[in-house]
């Protein structure tokens, strides 16, 4: 199922080119979407049949006539994977000579949850004179509390997947600082629930800046796949429902500037396009 938040914080399910308001059958409170979203994840399995009935008979709207919002209304934390594709390591060493290690030695880093934005929100450059890069990634949201969960069990704790842009200022500061500015983690266009994705470790990822294809990769080349990233994130640490994991970017990373339009597309997930402003 494709779950979205749209217009005035309504909850929707996307089917084809239409979106159905499923707020009523999920006890959705648009005045408190964060608490409502946590409740949705906790009760999704028992509510799924009612949601599907609402999709079949409820009020729906053309998808191109609504405004899609950030599909995760407030994350607790964002764990992100550095240098998780070998070809990305190669390009960073070629350009900056700054990637001697991969995720196997670096582990994960945190991004501020305040950097989250939606699939129709612009990326705002805080320092337009500095190089700021796009990084196309597969992201997912934790659906159940987890600690010391092994990779082989991780899929049972993932609620769903989405496309994610990890926007990064280049420089010598800590990764967390350079990647945590407002609007530096656009996600969307919706959440595709885990049961819809047969193998998240074999999905094509593409990114364009304006009409130029910059990134064309696949999650099958991840060094630590989606499930291994999950294991790493909850190794002696607790993941909570609503936490996000970003799995890293393939090669093709490059700069963005004011006036650019950035489009990300992930197989079986969907696509969205955002403007770059200052």
Descriptive notes:
This protein has helices at residues 33-57, 86-95, 103-106, 175-178, 226-233; strands spanning 2-6, 10-15, 18-21, 60-62, 78-80, 109-111, 116-117, 123-124, 132-134, 136-142, 158-165, 168-169, 185-193, 204-209, 212-218, 244-246, 254-255, 261-266, 270-277. It has 278 residues and is of the alpha+beta class. The chain has two domains: 2-65, no CATH class; 78-277, Fumarylacetoacetase-like, C-terminal domain (Fumarylacetoacetate hydrolase, domain 2), CATH 3.90.850. The strands form three sheets. Strands 1, 2, 3, 4, 5, 6, 7, 10, 11, 13 and 16 form an eleven-stranded mixed beta sheet that branches. Strand 14 and strand 15 (212-218) form a beta hairpin. The longest helix has 25 residues, at 33-57. The chain is globular, with a radius of gyration of 18 Å. It starts with a strand and ends with a strand.
Number of spatially distinct domains: 2
Distance between the termini: 35 Å
The chain-level mean pLDDT equals 96
Helical run tally:
5
Query: Architecture of the largest domain in CATH?
Result: Alpha-Beta Complex
Q: Helix and strand succession?
A: EEEHEEHHEEEEEEEHEEEHEEEE
Report the major sheet.
Answer: 11 strands, mixed
What overall form do the CA principal axes indicate? globular
Rg, Cα atoms, Å: 18 Å
Number of strands: 19
Helix residue percentage: 10-25%
For the record, the CATH class of the largest domain is Alpha Beta
Using the coordinates shown, work out and report the CATH topology of the largest domain: Fumarylacetoacetate hydrolase, domain 2
């Amino acid at each position: 199922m494709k779950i979205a938040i749209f217009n005035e914080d309504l909850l929707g399910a996307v089917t084809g080119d239409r979106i159905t308001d499923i707020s009523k059958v999920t006890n959705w409170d648009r005045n408190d979407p964060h608490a409502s979203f946590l409740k949705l994840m906790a009760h999704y399995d028992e509510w799924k049949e009612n949601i599907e009935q609402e999709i079949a008979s409820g009020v729906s709207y053309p998808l191109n006539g609504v405004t899609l919002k950030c599909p995760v209304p407030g994350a607790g934390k964002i764990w992100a994977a550095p240098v998780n594709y070998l070809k990305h390591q190669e390009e960073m060493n070629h350009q900056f000579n700054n990637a001697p290690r991969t995720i196997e030695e670096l582990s994960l880093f945190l991004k501020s949850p305040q950097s989250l934005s939606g699939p129709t929100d612009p990326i705002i450059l805080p320092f337009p004179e500095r190089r700021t890069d796009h990084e196309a990634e597969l992201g997912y949201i934790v659906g159940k509390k987890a600690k010391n969960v092994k990779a082989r069990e991780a899929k049972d704790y993932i609620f769903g997947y989405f496309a994610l842009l990890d926007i990064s200022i280049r420089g010598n500061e800590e990764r967390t600082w350079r990647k945590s500015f407002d609007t530096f983690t656009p996600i969307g266009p919706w959440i595709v629930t885990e049961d819809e994705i047969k193998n998240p470790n074999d999905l094509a990822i593409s990114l364009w800046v304006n009409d130029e294809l910059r990134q064309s990769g696949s999650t099958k080349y991840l060094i630590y796949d989606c499930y291994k990233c999950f294991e790493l994130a909850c190794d002696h640490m607790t993941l909570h429902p609503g936490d996000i994991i970003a799995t890293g970017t393939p090669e093709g990373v490059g700069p963005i500037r004011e006036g650019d339009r950035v489009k990300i597309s992930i197989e079986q997930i969907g696509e969205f396009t955002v403007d770059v402003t200052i």
